[in-house]
Specification:
two-stranded antiparallel sheet, single chain, mainly alpha, Preprotein translocase SecY subunit, 18 helices
Length: 447
C-alpha cells in the first residue's frame, strides 16, 4: 500500500503548483540571484588588456585554464571580479572540516548546536578570505607576466594593481559565497552547487555550437560525434541510476496495541542508505584541492625547465599524475564526507533508545558495526562509481580534444544538482498539498 507522501506525489498537477506561493517565491528568488551572479561574471578587473587575455584563453583552453574557466562559468576567461568563483570557500570548508575531525576543541564546538555551527561557519569565512587573498595575489602576479602579441595583459602593473586585483577577487568570492547562502536559506537547492551548476550550464550552448562547428569543418568525424552523443546519454542515465540507488536496512519497531481486545502489531520500516552518500561533493572537493596549488603556476609565463614549470606540466589536466591524484582525492573525500555526515554509532543509539532494532542484530555496538560495515561497502562502490564517471569520459575526450563541459565531472555536477533541486521542489509541493488538506479538514470541522 502506498504511503500518503507517495499518493500525493502521484496526484501532483499544475494547478497545485499555481497555489504554492512560497515555492514560486523561492524559484523566483533563485533565478534573480543567478542573474545577479551571471552579470558579475562580465564585470572585468581594472587595468586589464582584454585582447591579451582573450588570446591566452584560446591558447590554454585545453589545460588547467580550461578547467578553471569551466568552474567559474567563463568568468576567469574574461578576467572578471568573479574569476575565483566559490572555490576558495569550498577549499576553506574542506580545511575546516578536516581540522574539526582532528581537533577536540572544534569537535566539541560542533556538538554545541546552532551556536557552534555559526562559530565554525565564521572560521570558514576567515579561511575563505585568506585563501582568496592568496589566490588573488597569484593571479595578479601571473597577469603581470602574461604577454601577448599586443603587449602585456596588465595596462599599468605594480603594487596598486596587485592590491586592487586581490581586493576585487576576494570581494567577488565573498559576494558569491553570500549569494550561495541566500539560495540555500531562501531559494531552491544547495547554494554552492547551484552556483557551479549555473556556470557550467551557461556555457553549454556555446560548447555545443563549437563542437558541431568542428564536426562541420572536419576537425571531428561524424562517427566521433555519434560516439560522443551515445557516451553523454549513457553517462547521464548511469548517474541518475546510481544517485537514486540505495540499500534498505529493515528496522522493526516495538509492538503496539491499536485497539482494545486486538492483538499487538509489530511495525516495520527501513533505513535507506544511498550508494553515493557524498553526492557531488568529492569531485568538487578534489578539483578544488588540485586547482589550489596550481593557480599560481598556471597563469604566468613559467619557464618549462623550472620546478614550477615541471609541476605545472605534470599536474596539467589530462596528465597521468593529475588523474592519479584526482582519483585518490575522490576516494578520500567520499569516505571522509560520508563519515562526517553519517554517524553509525549515533544511529544505533537512537534506534536503541526508541526500542527499535535490526532483525537478527543485537542493539547497541553490534548494530553500529553492522551499519558501519554496510556503509563502508556502499561508500566503496560509490567512490569507484564517482571515479569511473569522472575519469572515463575525461580520458576519451582528451583523445579527441572536446570541451570540458562534456566531461564526467561537469555532467555529474549538472545531473546531481538537478536531481537534488527537483527533490526539493517535490518536497515543497508535497508540503503545500498537506497544508491544503489540513485547511480543508479544519474548515469542515474534521481537525
Amino acid at each position: 500500500m502506498a504511503s500518503p507522501i507517495e499518493q500525493l506525489a502521484k496526484n501532483f498537477n499544475f494547478s497545485s503548483f499555481k497555489k504554492a506561493q512560497d515555492l514560486k517565491k523561492r524559484i523566483l528568488f533563485t533565478l534573480v540571484i543567478l542573474i545577479i551572479y551571471r552579470l558579475g561574471t562580465y564585470i572585468p578587473l581594472p587595468n586589464i588588456n582584454p585582447a591579451v587575455v582573450s588570446e591566452f584563453t584560446r591558447s590554454h583552453a585545453g589545460g588547467l585554464f580550461g578547467v578553471l574557466d569551466m568552474f567559474s562559468g567563463g568568468a576567469i576567461g574574461r578576467m572578471t571580479i568573479f574569476s575565483l568563483n566559490i572555490m576558495p570557500y569550498i577549499s576553506a570548508s574542506i580545511i575546516v572540516q578536516l581540522l574539526t575531525s582532528m581537533s577536540p576543541q572544534l569537535e566539541a564546538l560542533k556538538k554545541e548546536g546552532e551556536a557552534g555551527r555559526r562559530k565554525i561557519n565564521q572560521y570558514t569565512r576567515y579561511g575563505t578570505v585568506a585563501l582568496a587573498l592568496m589566490q588573488g595575489f597569484g593571479i595578479a602576479v601571473g597577469l603581470e607576466r602574461m604577454m601577448g602579441y599586443s603587449g602585456c595583459a596588465v595596462i599599468d602593473p605594480g603594487l596598486l594593481f596587485r592590491f586592487t586585483t586581490m581586493t576585487s577577487l576576494t570581494g567577488g568570492t565573498l559576494f558569491i559565497m553570500w549569494l550561495g547562502e541566500q539560495i540555500s536559506s531562501r531559494g531552491l537547492g544547495n547554494g554552492s552547487s547551484i552556483i557551479i551548476y549555473a556556470g557550467i550550464v551557461a556555457n553549454l550552448p556555446s560548447a555545443l555550437f563549437n563542437t558541431f562547428a568542428m564536426g562541420k569543418q572536419g576537425a571531428i568525424s561524424v562517427m566521433a560525434l555519434f560516439v560522443l552523443l551515445i557516451l553523454v546519454v549513457a553517462v547521464i542515465a548511469f548517474i541518475v541510476f546510481m544517485e537514486k540507488a540505495s540499500r534498505r536496512i529493515p528496522i522493526q519497531y516495538p509492538k503496539r496495541q491499536m485497539m482494545i481486545n486486538m492483538p499487538a502489531q509489530q511495525q516495520g520500516t527501513h533505513l535507506p542508505l544511498k550508494i553515493n552518500n557524498a553526492n557531488v561533493i568529492p569531485p568538487i572537493f578534489a578539483s578544488s584541492i588540485l586547482l589550489l596549488p596550481m593557480t599560481i603556476t598556471g597563469f604566468g609565463a613559467v619557464d618549462s625547465d623550472s620546478i614550477l614549470g615541471t609541476i605545472s606540466r605534470l599536474f596539467n589536466h589530462g596528465q597521468p599524475l593529475y588523474m592519479i591524484f584526482y582519483v585518490v582525492a575522490i576516494i578520500f573525500f567520499s569516505f571522509f564526507y560520508t563519515a562526517l555526515m553519517f554517524n553509525s554509532k549515533d544511529t544505533a543509539d537512537n534506534l536503541k533508545k526508541s526500542g527499535s532494532y535490526i532483525p537478527g542484530i543485537r542493539p547497541g555496538d553490534s548494530t553500529a558495526e553492522y551499519i558501519d560495515t554496510i556503509l563502508t561497502r556502499l561508500t566503496t562502490v560509490g567512490s569507484l562509481y564517482l571515479c569511473l564517471i569522472c575519469m572515463l569520459p575525461e580520458i576519451l575526450l582528451s583523445q579527441i580534444s572536446l570541451p570540458f563541459y562534456f566531461g564526467g565531472t561537469s555532467l555529474l555536477i549538472v545531473v546531481s544538482t538537478s536531481i537534488d533541486t527537483v527533490g526539493q521542489f517535490q518536497s515543497h509541493m508535497i508540503a503545500q498539498q498537506y497544508e491544503g488538506l489540513f485547511k480543508k479538514g479544519k474548515a469542515k470541522g474534521l481537525i
